[in-house]
Amino acid sequence: MNDVLSVIETCPLLEGLPGPAKLTLAEQARNRAYGAGEIIYPPGALQSSLCIIAHGRVRICASNIAGREAILAILDVGAWFGDTVFSPGMPRVFGATAHEDCQVFEIQGEVLRATLRDNPEAYPVALDQVSRRLWSAMSVIQDDVLRGTEARIGRRLLFLAQMHNHSGQDGNVAVSFALTRELLANMMGMTRQGVHRVLKNIEAQGLIEFAYGRVTISDPERLSQYVDRLD
Amino acid sequence: MNDVLSVIETCPLLEGLPGPAKLTLAEQARNRAYGAGEIIYPPGALQSSLCIIAHGRVRICASNIAGREAILAILDVGAWFGDTVFSPGMPRVFGATAHEDCQVFEIQGEVLRATLRDNPEAYPVALDQVSRRLWSAMSVIQDDVLRGTEARIGRRLLFLAQMHNHSGQDGNVAVSFALTRELLANMMGMTRQGVHRVLKNIEAQGLIEFAYGRVTISDPERLSQYVDRLD
DNA sequence: TACTGACTGTCAATTTGTTTACACTTGGCC
DNA sequence: GGCCAAGTGTAAACAAATTGACAGTCAGTA
């Protein structure tokens, strides 16, 4: 998963492109490396380019005047970010920061858009993928506005578990993954202490366990049911 | 703005389609009328179709077990909803309800997708529009997670003012529009009383005035500056 | 003009989450 | 093995928003 072509080849967003077009994109992509914590672009940036992660993880985040950070997502190898490419002129809403040392391929907006124009059969997939991101965003909004902290955290945990569970197995198999309370707090727009209290409450129901930097969902199916009963 | 063709012709999402394709779509569109409060589709619905408003206004909303309603947006004539058409199989996140008596043209997902495939020059515009919706959704998320109620409400008021201000004039001209506190509360995921307190506070700064079912932004430019200084 | 339903203002009690402060683990590294 | 930074648990004081309760206002209609 490290050279340009294989990364571009497996990126879901570009799945619809024919081989030769992917090759051309690969040739025009810019290879960039970032150290942990380095800013790839800040919120509000006006550039129009698509980034695909070749190595490491990237944090999509923003912060307010008071210095509080909000993390929208932490993306892994193979994921893309910078969907504003499709609306040139719009500033980026969230910024992107290297969550750890990482390597990113950057495709200029004009290059990408031209490639798609020349290979229109790739549009349906791209449209589908962007539309799915919109779907996810709407789910987040719904959760934020409609649900209490416990339901929100529960749902987020289930979502993260799903992300980590590429293996496809689902249901009542325990899922364990690395996640600090601090990170989760930033994802939820809460404080570390607030998250802690909620987490302890969910643990008391026997639905999760948590250790240093790690959360384990004992029975995802049951957690899901529990969460659905909350408002 | 009432017959099928003119509605489809002016819908931003379909702007890229050539005339004849629009005509074909118009012929295949289903004309539906809804009484105020009637459900067009509920949250979670699995159907895949695109709706364009020909008359009246539509509320995009969801509600939790406790009965609280969250309003994502209230769309006006000419607007479209149901972006999940581009990701068939995904359930709708929010539902759609007739906010007042209204008339809606519904285009089946398969029809729309086939039309786009046959007229690929329309894709860039569609992709741009969906991407803009994603942009808006991300802005909402950022506001929800990062900002306090006062900043959130201020920003939302400015956004609503912009919606109502097709005239293009901007800056320090007062903008007035119909909006009940109750509606605003549902939009913000707050209570009527909570909104009231915040609104009174903003009013105390001389930035807005409000009357029965109506809000007036005295000086949008100044409100914008005020809001930006808050976290 | 009186009636009515939707909308509104206000306030105390209560819930909920943040702030502040401090002591304690954990795991990697020299 | 000991050091240290990052992560964690806990709790009281505090801030902010919801709840619940009630009286008042507005605009349209009979």
**Tertiary shape of chain A:** globular
State the separation between the terminal residues of chain A, measured CA to CA: 42 Å
* Beta-strand proportion of chain A: 15-25%
Topology of chain A as a string of helices (H) and strands (E) = HHEEEEEEEEHHHEHHEEH
* Individual helix count of chain A: 8
Structural class by SSE content of chain A: alpha+beta
Arithmetic mean pLDDT of chain A: 95
Question: Could you give a short account of the major beta sheet of chain A?
Answer: 4 strands, antiparallel
Helical amount of chain A: 40-55%
Number of strands of chain A: 11
> How are strands sequenced across the largest beta sheet of chain A?
1-8-3-6
Uncertain parts of chain A: none
Which value, in Å, is the CA radius of gyration of chain A? 19 Å
What do these coordinates show?
Two copies of one chain form a homodimer. Chain A has 231 residues and is α+β, with helices and mostly antiparallel strands. In chain A, 42% of the residues lie in helices and 23% in strands. Chain A contains eight helices and eleven strands. Chain A has helices at 4-10, 19-28, 109-118, 123-146, 149-164, 181-188, 192-204, 220-229, and strands at residues 30-34, 39-41, 49-55, 58-63, 69-75, 80-81, 95-98, 102-108, 175-178, 208-211, 214-217. In chain A, the strands form three sheets. Chain A has a four-stranded antiparallel sheet. In chain A, strands 2-7-4-5 form a four-stranded antiparallel sheet. In chain A, a hairpin with a 5-residue loop joins strand 4 (58-63) and strand 5 (69-75). The longest helix of chain A has 24 residues, at 123-146. At the A-B interface, helix 3 and helix 4 of A face helix 3 and helix 4 of B.
